[in-house]
Amino acid sequence: MKKVVAVLCLLLAWRSTASSQAEDVAAFSIVGWDALTGDLGIAVKAQSFGAGAVVPHAKAGVGAVAAQGEANPGFGPQGIDLLEQGKGARQAVEMLLSSDPGAARRQVAIVDAQGKSFGYTGAGCLPYAGQIIGDGYVVQGTMLTGETVLKSIGRSFEISSGDLAERLLSALEAGEQAGGRQRGHQSAALLVVRDGGGFGGFGDRMIDLRVDDDSAALSHLRRLFGTWQRTYLGGVQARSIEAFNEKKNFAAAQELTRRMVVVLNAQIREHPDDPEVLSGVARVLATNNIDRQRALDLAKRASKLAPGNLRILDTLAECHFQSGNYDEAIAIESELVAKDPSSDEYWKQLKKFKDGKERQSR
Asked: How confident is the model at residue 16 (pLDDT cuts 50, 70, 90)?
């Protein structure tokens, strides 16, 4: 009987400790807004496991919410609902806290779709705890080495330019360099939403990256973000540029194009001999009529580095087509169809090139 009681006591103690650890999301984060694109997002790094599933919440055209400290994950969807009802950032935060008995241990930050921001840090949050509310952003943290961490994050965000995701991630890195938290980290996450920014243009979840159970979580989040850029950035930005042009917001379309070119140039500098990177950049430059001659040069280099890669040869054909070299495009694509006759994509490309040549000859 004594052994049973002892085991029960140990289980209860473990349950109490585990519950406490699970509920406390000791982290530093930034919630931000991009005035040009309307992007909303959150970047967070935490000691806790799975912070990306608890802290960040956002909806395009509505707002972004971060819930941490002894986190109440319900603050995310509830905060979004309040914003949709027309409540301001400050009013939404105050309403969330008014019915929460654990408010003194919470941290919550909200930025709405107009860039208005507000945050709250309860007196019961683990020290050092604090926040900075700026123009279009809120920085918060608990168990930090000091206020310098928050200042570094906020200042980095304010002086930076470019896409919101890059600014949020760079700001978080500045906070880590300034000392970060008192203890190690286990997770990091980046969430950015944009109307029509989801996969294939569906939904608003443009970027949703998470790293868990990793002592180098933030550096690995940066690596994942780089992979996202190489894989999806071109398509996302092209759709947004087209949307801006349709709305006759030409200044925004031009700025978004400039941002995209900056990122593409950085990719080439970082991976000058990677044929996949060169080919990906070439396709974006060509199909968006940014720099067709450079696109063709990059595609030719990529095909020399990987002469047997059919996808890269397809990009070379596309770049020839976009440059008006119809015969070259048709010749390359005909070879691809011969090598892989089951590919509908190569067949459609070949038809497009032939139709383009016929229209040109009329």
From this structure: very low
Residue found under tokens 């190489």 = 230
Task: Please give the domain boundaries of the chain with CATH numbers for all domains.
Answer: 24-215 (3.60.20.10), 271-361 (1.25.40.10)
Say what the pLDDT of residue 198 is.
Answer: 96
DSSP per position, 11-45:
HHHHHHHHHHHHHEE-EEEEEEE-TTT--EEEEEE
Model confidence band, residue 332 (pLDDT cutoffs 50, 70, 90): very high
Give the E-state strand segments of the chain in sequence order. Answer: 24-25, 27-33, 40-46, 56-59, 63-70, 106-112, 117-121, 130-134, 137-141, 187-193, 205-211
CA atoms within 13 A on the CB side of 226: 15
> What pLDDT, in 10s, does the model give residues 82-104?
999 999 999 999 999 998 999 99
Q: What DSSP element (H or E) covers 278?
A: helix 275-287
Per-residue tokens: 172: 């978080």
Helix axes 275-287, 292-305, angle to 10 degrees: 160
Is the pLDDT at 24 greater than 90, yes or no?
A: no
Distance CA 92, CA 70 (A): 19
Band the pLDDT of 26: cuts 50, 70, 90.
confident
Q: How does the average pLDDT of the chain come out, rounded?
A: 92
**Cβ neighbours of residue 11 under 8 Å, at least 6 residues apart?**
none
Nearest by Cα to 110 from 153, 161, 55? 55
Is-cis flag, bond preceding 232, omega within 30? no
Distance CA 251, CA 236 (A): 18
Question: From the DSSP assignment, how many helices (H) and strands (E) are in the chain?
Answer: 13, 11
